[in-house]
Write a structure and sequence with these properties.
globular, two-stranded antiparallel ribbon, 102 residues, mainly alpha
């Protein structure tokens, strides 16, 4: 589900404040847990370091996953969680929906 679809569902269920609070809590916890993340060589391209962008993407994905769970609609964002838990970094999706990981 897109962000707008999740938001509309939360509103229709009368759970928008709860979903927002759960998402924010998980976002913060994710950032805390990533403070000790091991450096990933594929996140460096010459002088460019994409580590902070990867951290932000992980926190965003887990925030959306928390909202999906809160609304009992696990979907795309929840499907990304195992990749992160295994130490991989989702980098995009292919046309068929397969996730590309680093």
């Amino acid at each position: 589900m897109t962000f707008d679809e999740l938001k509309a569902l939360a509103q229709s269920l009368g759970r928008e404040p709860e979903a927002r609070a759960a998402g924010l809590e998980v976002y913060k916890l994710t950032l805390v847990s990533l403070r000790t993340m091991v450096d990933h060589p594929l996140l460096h391209f010459g002088p460019d370091d994409l580590t902070n962008a990867a951290r932000g993407a992980a926190a965003f994905a887990m925030r959306r996953a928390a909202i999906e769970i809160m609304l009992d609609t696990p979907g795309f964002w929840c499907s990304l969680a195992p990749y992160y838990f295994q130490g991989n970094w989702p980098a995009g999706t292919l046309p068929g929906g397969r996730v590309v990981v680093l």
